[in-house]
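Exercise 3.2. Students should predict the tertiary structure of the chain below and write it as structure tokens, then compare their answer with the key that follows.

Predict this chain's 3D structure.
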Amino acid sequence: MTPDGTGTPRAGKSQELLVHIPLRSLELEGNLDLVEGSEGLVLFAHGSGSSRFSPRNRYVARALRQAGLSTLLIDLLTREEEAIDAQTGHLRFDIELLAVRLLATTDWLHDDTRTRHFRVGYFGASTGAGAALMAAAERPDVGAVVSRGGRPDLAGDRLPRVQAPTLLIVGGHDVPVIDLNRQAMQRLGAEEKQLVIVPGATHLFEEPGALKEVARLASEWFVCHLVHKTAPTHA
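Answer key:
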């Protein structure tokens, strides 16, 4: 059985590549893992103060690859910008900037011969979830969005324009973020949308089994919408 519990056969071997995504005057670095035979690819938008080396997002990415999905974990800030942000904390909340870079990365995926055939989804954590939804509002071809302990409310007026099936995952003890997710859920324009609260989990899902549940839920959602294109049901 795959992490999503659907019984979908696991894909073949994974090939990890260090990639550089050129923007106008800078370059973003990422780790692209191409799974043999996969049809969908999940692009990660990291949260405030995090990076593509986040152990939590790497854990989820491994589960997605086990479910047959390719992944791209990318730093949306350059090393110089990260150094500045470590002192000021301003760039991590520049949701417009992060969304623009997500869109540029999505364009790069569609242009590159290795990845142009993939159906793309977004996985956003913390503030990265706001950026993922803001970007999805501009790209109707985005197949699905999953938010982990996210701030979807930061997408603001773009929420009604999001059409991608969206799953919001929040810890049961993360009360302020639960409320923000419920408010964002009401504004989301997607026909398929769901809020799942993981009992006993806090914001970072550090409790035993909590992150495993996030990985299972995300795998199920992405496999259904990027590969099978059917809506999953959660008990």
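Discussion points: Helices lie at 55-66, 79-88, 95-111, 127-138, 175-187, 210-228. The mean pLDDT is 88.
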